[in-house]
Amino acid sequence: MKITLNDLLAVPYVDGGRDLTGLDCYGQVWFARHHVINRPLSRSYSHILCANKLGMTEAFFSMLPNFEQVPAHHGAVGCCFKKDADGQEVLLHVGLVVLVDGQLKVLNTNAKSGPELMSLRHFNRLALEVKFYDDCLNYNLPK
Question: Which site from 8, 78, 85, 120 is most exposed, i.e. has the minimal number of CB atoms within 10 Å?
């Protein structure tokens, strides 16, 4: 069965969710990158709830060697950060950049509004620091 963006827009927000019964922000990115963007399935980290920002941040940095920072493009993961009291980056939220009708949007979900397609401009305003990452071995990226 082929999963589409429309299918994901009907999935409710569930903290720690990793399947079509419910997805959190990381679960939605993890699921969509594999089923919609056709990227390799990475570790699910379903044991880390979104309220655990330090756990999310540790998981992010453990995966970072497999990714590179890129301009926003279809398939890139948008990451929202803040600095902690020591000046270290803390991961707050993630979304997936997708191309819809010729425009870049962000597949986004949260506990308040659930899944949505958000403008890239709006996503960039979710945090003071937003960076985009994609697999290091994606040879289709512009250099």
Answer: 85
pTM: 0.90
Query: Among 50, 90, 75, which Cα is nearest to 132's?
Result: 75
Residue 132 · residue 106 · CB < 8 Å: no
> Considering only CA atoms, which of 98, 81, 99, 103 is closest in space to residue 90?
81
- Asked if the model's pLDDT at residue 133 lies above 80, the reply is yes
Q: b/e per residue, 85-98, with b = 16+ CB within 10 A?
A: eeeeebbbbbbbbb
- The pLDDT of residue 8 is above 90: yes
Q: 30-44, 62-76, 91-105: lowest mean pLDDT where?
A: 30-44
Q: Alpha helix (H) ranges present in 1-143?
A: 5-8, 25-35, 53-63, 120-124
Q: How many CA atoms lie within 13 A of 74 on its CB side?
A: 10
Residue 22 has a CB neighbour count (10 Å cut-off) of 16
Please tell me which residue, 123 or 143, carries the higher pLDDT value.
123
